[in-house]
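Entry: Cobalamin biosynthesis protein CobD
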Amino acid sequence: MNFGLVLAAVAAVALDRLLGEPRRFHPLVGFGALAGRLQALLNPPLTQGDPATRLPGLIAWMLAVLPFVLVALWLRSVGGVLQALVDVGLLYLAIGARSLSEHAQAVSRPLAAGDLAQARARVGWMVSRDTTQLDDSGVAKAATESVLENGNDAVFGALFWFFLLGGPGALLFRLANTLDAMWGYRTPRLRYFGWAAARIDDLLNFVPARLTALSYALCGFSRAATARALACWRAQAKAWDSPNAGPVMAAGAGALGVALGGAAIYHGEVEQRPPLGEGAPPAAADIDRAVALVQHALWLWLAVATALGLWGLL
């Protein structure tokens, strides 16, 4: 592994830990606005039920993502200091470890203090399900699931593609993941238009998700937790709708020793989801334990990358 990439990754993670996400003018906000305009232009109401809308969806994805990635590749090709700045800057913008922790704590703290209304409101920032009727356990479950899944989406997926392709790889993953979050729903409006965004995200996430699941298992808080995480991954992941969220969340729930999955309300309809993990339903403290699991896995990734980078220097 290129040791320069390792140093850039460490610098970007340090920046994220020190600064968090940009508070103003975050590039992803502008990207989201662009994606919204492309959707309005290429997915008009009259054609939303037509399977042929998959092609405009693919074209929209390409128009939204490829120009930025190509510009990043061109800037990086200059080399030298500019290459380092592109790598560090793009990975810093692509990862969100500190933001994930902050969102989780905004749920766990009021939940632990007995402020269920505030906890419901804040977990609604993290998940797409209806949170207005959740009890304490339901709030903790939703937040824990989000932390585990977004550990892959907001941290490890970006790191994986960064180590393969540098800053442009992290940018590609982050933009593709953002479009999946915006378009990748099986609603009447997006069922066909969002097909390409969902499938591309599945493809880009396939390897990172399994490495994330393995990291969660290895970073379990005991040898028994690691064994349980691997067993849950093997037995439960295939029943989950998402081919990538299943391994990540099953292994994470197993490592934490909590029971996730079950009923949840999406877009006004109750969805019965397969069980994940093993143990009692999560409580407020388990949200913080999930954050700690992601953080330990992040240190593991950086340690392995550093060892591989040093090995490449020998």
